[in-house]
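re the bet — no i am not wrong, look at it urself. input seq straight from the record:
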Amino acid sequence: MDRTRFTACLALLAMLAAAPEGGAQAAKPDDWAALIGRYAADPVGTRDEVLLRARDGVDGQGIDVLLVVADANFRRGKLSDAERYFEKMVDESPKTPPGSLLVSYARLGLGMIAVRKGDLPAARAAFATASEISSGGLDRARWLANVAEAQTAAAMGDTDEAIMMLEDLEQAAPDESAPPGVIEAVQFARGSALMEAGEFAEAAAVFDAIAASGGEGADDARYAAARARLGAGEIDAARNALAELVAACPRDAGPSERASSRIRDLEPYGILRKWIDNYRDLPFGAFEKRGTLYALGGCDLARTTLARIEADGGWRPPPREALPVAAEDEPEADEPEAADDTKAAPPLPTETDEPDSPWPVVGALGALGAAVLLAFAWLRRRR
C-alpha cells in the first residue's frame, strides 16, 4: 500500500478527522480513501456504506481498509465478519512499523468481540497481547488495553490482580500524560473491582473522589458511591444519597433503557460490556471525554435503585447473575441494501441484544479510534 495513502487514511481515522459534514460526494467504486475519510467523520452514519462497498471485495486492498471494514462490522453487530477481518489484519500486517502497529488495533478489536461473545479468557488474552504489541510505554493504546485487561480480570474473579494493575496505572497517569477520560475510567474500574472484592468502604471513597472532580461522569460516580454504601450496609446513608442525586437530575429526561442487574450492581463484566456497547454508537475520539464512552446513566440507575429500596421497605442484596458462557455469535442485523443514484439505502433496523447486555475497554473502550491516533503520531514523528 502506498505510504502517502496509508498516512492519509490514518489521519482521517483519528478522532478529530476533518471531513466535512453533509455534502460530501459519494466515494467512487475504487476510492476507498474518500470513503475512509467519511467514515472517520461519522462512523455510525457511514458504516452501512462501508459494508456495501466491502461487498465488492477487499482483496488487494491495504490493511487500512481492513481496519475500517472490521470496525464497521463490529459496530453493526456482525461479530463473525468483524472477527474475520481483524484476524486477516493480524495475518497480513507487516512485521515492522507502521504496519505492525495495526496488529495491536486488531487485537483490541478481537478482545472486544470476545467480550461481546462472553468469552472472557479469550478477551483477556487479546487485551494482554494488544498491550504488549503497542510500542512506547503507556501510550493511548496501552492505556486502553491495560484497563480492558484489568476489568476482564476482575470480571473473571481475579480481583486482587485487577486492583494492583489499576493502581499501577493510576500512579503512572501523571507521568504518562494519560487522557482525562481514560484516567477516570481507571479510577472507576478500580472502584468496581474493590466492590467485587467486598471492599465497599474503600470503593465508596474512590467513587466519592471521582464525583468531587465535577466531571461529566460525576452522576455515575455519585450513584456508584451510594451503591457501594448499600453493599456496606449503610442503608440510610445510601438512600439519602440516591434521593439527593435523583432530585438533582434533569426531570425532562427521556425514557431510559433497561439496565441489567450487572450495571446496577456495578459488576466488572457489566461495566466492560457497557463501555464496549457505548463505543459502537459513538464517534472516534469519545474515549478522551469524561462521561461519554464511559457513561452508565447514573440518574436512571439511581431512580431504579431508590424505587427498589422504597418498594421493598429496605435493601436486600440481589442474587448474582452467572458469568456468561461463550457464544458463537450474537444476532446479526440485516444486510444493507444497495443504494441507487436517486436515493440513499434505507436505514437498517436496530439490532437486538441479550437482556443483560448493557455496558468500556476500555478501549475501550474507543479502543480502535484511540489506537489509530498512536500510529498516526508515530508516523508524524518519523517524517
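see?? The domain at 3-382 is CATH 1.25.40.10 (Serine Threonine Protein Phosphatase 5, Tetratricopeptide repeat). told u. also The first helix runs from residue 3 to 13. so pay up
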